[in-house]
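Why this split exists: single-chain examples teach little about how molecules sit against one another. For that reason, every record in the complexes split bundles all components of an assembly together and asks for one structure covering all of them. Below is a record exactly as it appears in the raw files.
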Amino acid sequence: MLEQLLQFVVTGITVGSTYALVGLGFALIYNASQVVNFAQGEFVMLGAMVAVSIVGAGAPLPVAVLGGVAATTLVGIALEKLAIEPARGASVITTIIITIGASILLRGVALLIWGKDIYALPHFSGEEPIAIGSATVLPQSLWVMGVAAVLVLAVRLFFDRTMLGKAVLACACNRTAAQLVGINVQLMLTLSYALSAMLGAVAGVLVAPIAFTSWDAGVMLGLKGFSAAILGGMGNPMGAVAGGLLLGLIESLGAGLLSSGYKDALAFLIILIVLVVRPSGIFGRAAVERV
Amino acid sequence: MKRLAGFYLFAVLVALLPVAFPHNYFVTVVGVTIGINAILAVSLNLFMGYAGQISLGHAAFFGVGAYASGILTTRYGVDPWLAMLAGLAASGLVAALIARPILRLHGHYLAMATLGFGIIVNIVMVEAEGLTGGPDGMTGIPPLPLLGRSIDTDLEWYAVVAVVLLFTVWVSLNIFDSRAGRALRAVHGSEIAARTLGVDTAAAKSNVFVLSALIASFAGSLFAHQQSFISPGSFGFFFSIELVTMVVLGGLGSTFGAVFGAVVLSLLPEVLVVLEDYEVLVFGAVLMLIMIFLPQGLFVGTVRALRGIVARRAEAPVAGEG
């Protein structure tokens, strides 16, 4: 029983790490512009798909990984420039619908290019499971957890230690004030879309060897990332990471101990309960309503 | 009389369409789907357009109605009308139970909560195989009996759906101008201001949520009996999104806007069949373009523009004389 539990925890942390990266992407954009980007899951799918195609063309894996991430980052920038910027000042509902439209559009493009087949990337470093006590872990899972941890740390340092990161935060705090002190607000917004697309794509290429990918793989990942961000308290990047890990654990334990069919329902049920009990998320500050 | 002029015009149009085009596929077959979608869009608009809230889980109530009708009639031999009532009771109860806690949330949090609720209901439909038939759905749902016979031709269904749609539109238009409607619009404007004016905002929001759930459930029962087959795919996250899109496409807050949005989005797949693989892509692009360039909605935007032109025409001669 205890061994099984350990196995569920290992699986949970692997899955949770991807949710954390997707959630971090949500939080980044929300932090800079108060927009929830429903196309975040499609970034995950695109990153993996492009990488798969590059590998298929005969290029080595590292090139494919970089190519997938780079292409997706460009898509993120295009989304901000072509869809979000022209609709500046729109209501929350309108921006939600715009990003939902973008996610449907990206899915349509993926369907046209790659069809309905399911693809996988080769494992980064072998498929021999490593034993940890009685549980086993795939080397790819270690890649997922390791890279996620490094990226989370990097994002943290970026906001805490660099001028650029602080400038992005300033835009989130007060756009006008940021502009007055000479920050190029528009550039910071574009940067936040680029960064969150990059994070999504990295998550995509990391899990593609174990969880596979297809044209509609972004939907559930996007929803889970959104849940992670909400669970952590929207606008708190580290909260999103914690939320993602928690969600991964809940799912894995729920699937193992209760029922695999209801694992998604369980995850959303817990989010509902958290929202009802603590409307600002577990790690969010209680919102102060402005009149 | 003038207040409901639009409604009478709409009613005449709905009544005349099948008379003018009795064998037109788009009127008699697609018309029923459009009608059911329009009922759903109008009900969602009560919640989103009037009260300014967001729901990404409206399809759940549509599904509860459909499955209540499906399960009770096929598995327990309950009379279709009684099954429909049971569905209404279930939807109303669920909506009332979750309304207060969920509707305290705002913006993205409310979006997440309603989305989560919709997904949970959908997963139950897939997983509770013994009751719902699981992912394969359930077949053999009997037709709806009315006045001693069963409704089974396209034209009869058109008539039934049309009557329900007209009633829904009429209710929606009347709510807009009523005391309750003004309270909802006050909530939309500013919840805090509404509260200081003595509006019980929690009750206003939860009442309209329950009402929109009841209408959706009724539409779900109609859908189940009309299709005679239901599966979880019809009541999932995507359909909830499509419903939101219908409402926003027409123009939030406008009843006829919601109907218009339902017509356009229900026809789009029929027309886009020509484009086959491009369908999803075009759907997404249309959605984005409208929201970016016409955020008040296609219907409301066009009506406003036309009114502007008419007003300018009326002013023009005066300006010429002066």
